[in-house]
Design goal:
About 20% of the residues lie in helices and about 20% in strands. The protein is of the alpha+beta class. The protein has one domain: Ribbon (Umud Fragment, subunit A). The strands form 2 sheets. Strands 1, 2, 3, 4, 9, 10, 11 and 12 form an 8-stranded antiparallel sheet that branches. It has a 4-stranded antiparallel sheet with strand order 7-6-5-8, with no helix packed on it. A hairpin with a 5-residue loop joins strand 11 and strand 12.
């Protein structure tokens, strides 16, 4: 064997080439096994999901017919929380999701997911959780809500609302029939509370149902108002069924409502 034919030993390799080989071997040694990478990625995804649920977006479903015609039973909706950051509060006309203030939901309606998988998914916001309601916000702090004028319209701070765009037509005499009368007043809404109603006014166990009727002795005044800190966020998209996908926006009917009664 000639000198030209013999193998080149590592000692004879150029210094840069030897260092490059060692670097590649070190990188390979530091590379995680596939199963560890998978666990790491799942952990990161879970942490992001929890963060998104806590701060940004959460999934819910429509549990009843109270928000027809816009939202029907089993529609999947997304609720965003950003609008209420930094001192932001729910506004008139928002469709909001809120936790049961106590006694608004029956045992079946208030039940959450039952299987282990769905319960786990609900914890991270990937599956709707129970114990929540979806309604439209009609009155905010200080507002007076009154039913109804000679056209059957609800007024807020003296301003009648044109709600034809979203209230279900049930041939009711007015847009606040759940009290069995079209002559009632709610408010002023207490500080840090809101007054809510469903869009299907004849089939919605909302704030009007929890008002104390005149001369009633077996109810607690004020339970019709929902604490703001129970509001999870506002609905911004109807996600499923896919054919019904749409953005959910605040209607124009509340734009001209005075800030306070009598203005």
């Amino acid at each position: 064997m000639t000198t030209e034919d013999r193998d080149v030993t590592s000692a004879e390799l150029p210094e840069d080439t030897s260092r490059s080989s060692r670097s590649r071997r070190d990188d390979e040694d530091k590379h995680l096994p596939l199963w560890q990478e998978t666990i790491l990625l799942l952990g990161v995804a879970l942490a992001l999901a929890v963060l998104i649920k806590a701060l940004l977006v959460q999934a819910f479903f429509i549990p009843s017919e109270s928000m027809e015609p816009g939202l029907v039973v089993n529609d999947r909706i997304l609720v965003q929380k950003v609008s209420y950051w930094g001192g932001g509060t729910p506004e008139r006309g928002d469709v909001v999701v809120f936790k049961d203030p106590g006694g608004w939901l029956g045992p079946i309606d208030g039940a959450g997911p039952t299987s282990l998988v769905t319960r786990a998914m609900s914890k991270i916001g990937l599956y709707p959780s129970g114990g929540h309601l979806v309604k439209r916000l009609i009155g905010t702090e200080g507002d007076v809500v009154k039913c109804c004028d000679n056209k059957g319209r609800i007024s807020v701070n003296g301003m009648p609302l044109n709600e034809d765009a979203y209230v279900k037509d049930t041939n009711a005499k007015c847009n606040g029939p759940m009290t069995n009368t079209c002559d009632w007043t709610a408010g002023p809404v207490p500080e840090d509370h809101v007054f809510v109603m469903g869009d299907n006014r004849g089939r919605s166990a909302d704030s009007t149902v929890h008002m104390c009727p005149e001369k009633a002795t077996d109810c607690v005044s004020g339970e019709e108002f929902v604490p703001v800190d129970l509001v999870v966020g506002k609905v911004f998209v109807l996600l499923w069924p896919r054919d019904n996908f749409r953005w959910v926006n605040r209607p124009d009917s509340f734009a001209d409502v005075p800030a306070e009664p009598g203005e």
